[in-house]
Amino acid sequence: MVRSSFKPSERLRADIARFKHVGGAAAPDGGVIAEPVELSMSKMVDTLCQRYGVLPSQLLNEDVSLLKIVKTVTEGEPDGDR
Predict the structure, then answer these.
(1) Which residue in 73, 74, 46, 72 sits closest to 60, CA to CA?
(2) pLDDT tens-digit map of 24-43
(3) Which of 15, 17, 22, 60 is surrounded by the most beta carbons within 10 Å?
(4) Extents of the domains making up the chain
């Protein structure tokens, strides 16, 4: 079994906490406090694993074309279903 090297850093944990509390608000630099990319990716992996009943390791071994299929499906869904 291949072990994951994913270990959330303290910085990532702090970014997630900040996003949970004030996500969408203006950052001090004038930008927007957005969801961290690592959190978005983790959510996507978790959602796909639940949808297809597979482990993250199985999903991550799939070809990138799976993401193209999922993107196409979500683009075709009504806006309220996303």
Answers:
(1) 46
(2) 899 889 999 999 999 999 99
(3) 15
(4) 10-81
